[in-house]
Amino acid sequence: MTPSLFRSRLLWLFYVALASVPLSVSWFSERWRFGLLLASEPLMALTVGALGLGLVAGWLPWPRTARRLDKLIGLHVGALFVSTVFSSDVVVSAKYFATIVLYISFGYGVQRVLRLERTEWFRALWALALGTGLLAAFALMRHAQIGISYTFSYFVARPFLEHGHTNLTVILEPLVLVLNMALLYHPRAQRQRGRFLITMLLTAVLMVVAFSYSRASYVSMLAQALLLLAFSGREAGVRLLLPWAVASCLVLGGWQVVNIVHPHPPTAAKTNLLQELGSVSDFSSANESNAERMSRWLFSFDLFQQEPVVGVGPGTFPDRYLEFVRKAPAHPNYYTTLRRMNAHDLYLDWLAESGALGLLSGLLLLGYLLVRQLKWVFHGPQTPAQVGITAYLLYFLLHSFAQDFWQEPRVVVLFWLAVGLQRYYARAAMHSAPTTPPVALAAPASEPTA
């Protein structure tokens, strides 16, 4: 096989795997676990395996030098490996470690080795957008049929981990950023037809966000809008006001219509959108979601005190917390539940599961990416790519205080794609005069997304 043919086929496998990543739900049979859940992760493993085969066989060139980012990734993976070796449950940690290596190898390794060009980035982003669009359409269709249900939102949001959970809207936040960037910068969005189409797409995505019961995502969307206004200024910012006002009215109207058609959806949660928005700061026991977060945050510090250097083991937090709540602690700050999730904070998860080694290596990695982005922003004229990638990285880091994305495939894969895209645009800016790139390419940096 010639190197060019192998690279072409590997790219198409990469695109198919990307399209399948957002569709990681058991749609067809909950009993037999039959659905795209069975396809996406094996496709990623197949892509990474083919990448390794190409490197060994000489069909793909090895990277000439190790970048600083490569070394920081290796440092963090090494810290996770040390924590795995000393884990309280080596089998669980080994599975978690292998999964993290797979996600990084797929999201970062493939585009790092292949050095994607402009057209290839377009295709990768369209593949990811196709899967995300199908997921959003499926969620809206099911809500129209059964009502606004927290139970359903939780089911769709569930990723590969059997008892894992992430907010569905985390993978939609980058899509909202893409649409915002189009409204601000794309020439077709300044025409009536283009503006109408993007406004309708924005409305559909925001409906999925609103129906998901994700208060953290509501706040994240607001932070994203404020960041864009701060970057783009008043003149460009007014381009967002009317589309967002129209979309908000349609979302509120759609919420009321669904509640009228389905007054008693199969869920115990209240379906008042304004009450959901107002409960963001309520951490009392009356608010199960927020109280649960506080409980997990406090428990993370307890685990850190048990193993401050290497942690209790990557991926072991859910089992340790489940064991803890089954003892029904009498401490008033803990809200007991049998749901098995993560620590709801990326940094605290690192601290509890991988100790000081995992936290420091993770902060060095994320800190380097942030510093690199800020250097790029303050160098030369402002471009849409700079605005989009900066907004994405900032709200990814901020949202990580309320959720752990490192083990969520649909979020962390997009995050590594954004890292690669940042590198692509930064290098292009160094070799030529800054130009306004197509918003579709600026957008990927705009996924954490996740």
From TrEMBL:
Source species, domain of life: Bacteria
User: According to Swiss-Prot or TrEMBL, what is its membrane topology?
Assistant: Multi-pass membrane protein
The keyword Kinase is annotated on this UniProt entry? no
Subcellular location, in the record's words?
Membrane
Q: Which InterPro entries match?
A: O-antigen_ligase-rel_domated, WaaL-like
Q: What is its main location?
A: membrane
**GO cellular component entries:** membrane
Spell out where the chain crosses the membrane. 42-60, 72-90, 121-144, 164-184, 196-212, 240-258, 350-371, 383-402
Any one GO molecular function term: ligase activity
Does the UniProt entry include the keyword Ribonucleoprotein? no
Q: Which of UniProt's keywords are assigned here?
A: Ligase, Membrane, Transmembrane, Transmembrane helix
Residues forming the O-antigen ligase-related domain are 204-360
Q: What is this protein called?
A: O-antigen ligase family protein
Whose protein is this, by species?
A: Hymenobacter properus
